[in-house]
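User: I'll paste a sequence; please echo it back and then give the predicted structure.

Assistant: Echoing your sequence first, then the prediction.
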Amino acid sequence: MNKYELCVVVSAKIEEEERVSTINKVKELIERFGGQITNVDEWGKKRLAYEIQKMKDGYFNFIHFDAESTAPIEIESRIRIMDNVIRFLCVRQDK
């Protein structure tokens, strides 16, 4: 199993409940594809480096998890079509 870090930037224009629901859906995706979440780090609302979809702010969440090498591909393909996620990045951490 490899260690991964997934950064998810959620829209700042949505309600608190929707934001929490979006992050929970991402966590469920990780678990559905065999990942084990080790840490969730919520950075909160931060200013974006540049405007994305006419938004200047976003909620940053970092999710650390262990999974097989095929899991990130499946997870990213489903996160890509989520409405409230404006950016995401999944990277493998060094051992």
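The mean pLDDT is 93. The helical segments are 16-32, 71-79.
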